[in-house]
Target: Transcriptional regulator
Amino acid sequence: MKELQSEYQCAINLVIDLIGGKWKVLLLWHLNEGDKRFNELRRTIPEITKKMLTQQLRELEGHGLVKRTVFEEVPPRVVYSTTDFGHRLQPVLYGMCQWGDDYAEKEGIQMNSCWTGRDFMKNKSDLS
Amino acid sequence: MKELQSEYQCAINLVIDLIGGKWKVLLLWHLNEGDKRFNELRRTIPEITKKMLTQQLRELEGHGLVKRTVFEEVPPRVVYSTTDFGHRLQPVLYGMCQWGDDYAEKEGIQMNSCWTGRDFMKNKSDLS
DNA sequence: CGGAATCCAGACGGATACTG
DNA sequence: CAGTATCCGTCTGGATTCCG
Model:
């Protein structure tokens, strides 16, 4: 488990320690859609291994960005969701996504089935 | 040099490839304050080694987020700045910083001299 | 001043086997 | 189903030295 420092020069450094790395932002993004089970996340992100998924979810949980709920059933069911604080990151993730979309368009990079910034926008206006 | 994929599942993945890692977000954040020379960046971020600084700046340049300008003088002078597109990420970085500040406050983490989201806010209202 | 080259440790990530 | 445990290779990042 990655320990935070007791002191930071700049908030950006803290943010990098909290959500840096290859998977965390992606996990938070997908969890913002709604609660997800372990294997549901694996299907959503096929490239991640069980080991990495467990590890990253545990760190997010440890830093209070993700909540892990265990239902004592057989077979066991575990549901992951963002905490209120983790959820507060959503506008930022959304901004990142939009910026990424713009970059992809500018550079002619193909974007696939996944939930993108534009989809999100469309979805929001559908709701209103 | 990290090559981008020709196709992405999700814009977030593209964004991670563009500005992921330990240094890029921090560099873009500092470059948004204004153009900076190589050793100026080193002083701003004392923990980064020359190798990493060069490497990360080159990748940012290669992806069109940072511009590198060489002045043919003795001693040589090289100035780095954000491109227009790199600059478009600023609101996102600002949002990250604010969120990080909130986290630090919530968790009682000390924040130091560096340019933070709040400082930025203060600065903007000073200008207006 | 602004790098490049080299070497090395540790983090990251894959495969496989096992478990309540 | 939702993990743990272990082994192992790759690869990123850090320290140091050298260079025009």
